[in-house]
Each structure stands twice: as structure tokens, then as C-alpha cells.
Amino acid sequence: MVILSDAWTFLVIREAFFGAHRFEEFRSMLQIPRATLTDRLQRLVSEGIFKRIEYSQTSSWVEYRLTRSGIDFYPTFMALMQFGDKWLSENHGVPLQLVHADCGKVSKPFVACSHCLNKVTARHVTYRDGPGAGLVNVEPSKRSRRSSDDEQFNRGRPSSVSRALQVIGDRWSFLVIREAFFGARRFDKLQSELGIAPNILSDRLTRLVERGIFMKRMYQSGPDRFEYLLTPMGFDLYGPLVTMMAWGDKWRSNGKAPLILTHIDCGHDFTPTVICNECKNPVQAHAMQYRMRYNPDRYGGKKSSRALPG
User: Fold this and answer.
1) Contact 73, 49 (CB under 8 A)
2) CA distance 304 to 220
3) Burial class of residue 256 (count of CB atoms within 10 Å of its CB; 0-12, 13-18, 19+)
4) 83-130 pLDDT per residue, tens
5) Domains of the chain
6) Tell me, what's the pLDDT at 141?
7) Prediction pTM value
8) Which of 197, 166, 181 is closest to 229 using CA atoms?
9) What b/e readout covers 184-201, taking b as 16+ CB neighbours within 10 angstroms?
10) DSSP structural state of residue 124
11) Are the beta carbons of 113 and 268 closer than 8 angstroms?
């Protein structure tokens, strides 16, 4: 989430999945300031998400291509997309219809157990410490204040992933939701676990209640005290969160995953895997096609379906 919670960085990665490779392609699609785009591209190269390709020393022809770790963000995007399609598209419509090239059918990918290929939900998964387990302090953010412009995530083309990140895309909101899945319900518990300032925590809880992720329930009167419980919508964020976790385990843990997940239904340890609901094969960027449910002429796309680039 350190990578995806920055709106501009996320949007640049998204456009790479739609085929953008050159500086001007990203800039014209997103209407992003040149200095901002230069900074984000440099950051993505240093993070190992993009690789910078210079075609000759005498030419200015430079492309930015997704690396293997960048391409591995695709399942996370699919998990976020399905959450956005289900919960956040009522007033907007679903932007894309996916077709899985492997089976040729309309696909609604879901997060599954890598062993039994059945859907995983929070109530059917247990966890234990892995080799990288331990508590660490939350690192200070470069941005001390939350951006008030959530609409930055919606620049460019319509996107259910963008809508999902409007809900969880800032660092503190993500961490509050994460702690809820570890069982934290009350203000004091969340504050002590995260070391978060009370005014910031109050703001994020209010936002998450308003957006339907939490419900607020009084557990004490005189003085009134409340606990915050995940709603069905909030519980549906489990799939995207553990998919992000799988990416971090693979690319940021040096082989020492902090948590090991066990699927109660089959009794096996598993890696969260995003699969096609029709053929049960893992979804990959090069094997997924899409049909646009919006006017593609505004965004440089084509009306015919085509494979998402890797």
C-alpha cells in the first residue's frame, strides 16, 4: 500500500497495464504535471516496478516497462476491481467486462486458496506467525496530512480499482482496516496498536463508517463508548488485502513472510491466488481481455476487446 496509496503512482501503474510505455503517453492520458510524472517514474524504477529502457545513446526514445514485480500487481488490481464492481459501481456502472482468454468466457475473478481453489473469506482463514513475524513501528509518512482530494484516484479512465482505492488508499485507513481483521474493534485498542494521533484516528473511523466499511455500535453509556465492526462490505476487503499481502511476501519480505495463512475449509496452508471463476485458472495480465463499458474515444482506447498488456 505504500506504493498504491499514492494516487499518481497508482494511476501510472494502471496506465502501464493499458499499454502506456512512453512519458508523453502517461502525461496526456492523466494530465499529470511533467515534474510529478518524472518523480513518479523515477520512484517506480527505484522500487523495481518499472524498468527504464533507452533504445540508443543518441536518441531520446525511452520507454518504461513493467518488471516481473510490476506485472505481479495484476492480481491485486483484479481483486480491487471486483470489490469496486460489487460495492462502488451502483451510480457509475461497471467500467470493464473481463473475458479470460484461457477459457473464452466472461470472467469475474476471485481470491482463492491456492490448494483447494475455493474462495477464501476472513472467517474461514486462520493465521500464525511466519519466519518474518514481529512488531514494527509505523514509519512516519512523507505526507503529514491526508489529501482532501480523493478524486485524484479517478483521473483518466473510469476504474473500479480507483473507486476502491478512494476508500482504502490512504495509509491510515488501510492500517485501521488491517487491524480490524486482527480483531481490534475499539478506539483505544486501535490507537495503541498503531500509535496514531486521536484526531487522525477519529477522522478515519468517521470516514470508514460513512463509506460503509464499519458500523458503529455503543458498548457502554455514561460516558458513551463505541466499537467499530466490519460490515459485509468491509469483510469483502479481505480478499484484496491478503492479495496485497501475497505480493509483499513475494517481493518485499526477503523470503521471510510475517504470516502464514491456513484455509479452514481444506486444512492447508495457502497463498492467496486470484483465479477465473469459470475455469479456475490463475489470472494473468496477458491472458485477460476486456470490453469497455464507457466511451473509449475519450481515453485513447478501442471499442473492440483486446488483451491487457503485461
Assistant:
1) yes
2) 58
3) exposed
4) 999 999 887 789 999 999 999 999 999 999 999 999 999 999 999 999
5) 1-67 (1.10.10.10), 72-135+152-307 (1.10.10.10)
6) 52
7) 0.89
8) 181
9) bbebeebbebbebeeebb
10) G
11) yes
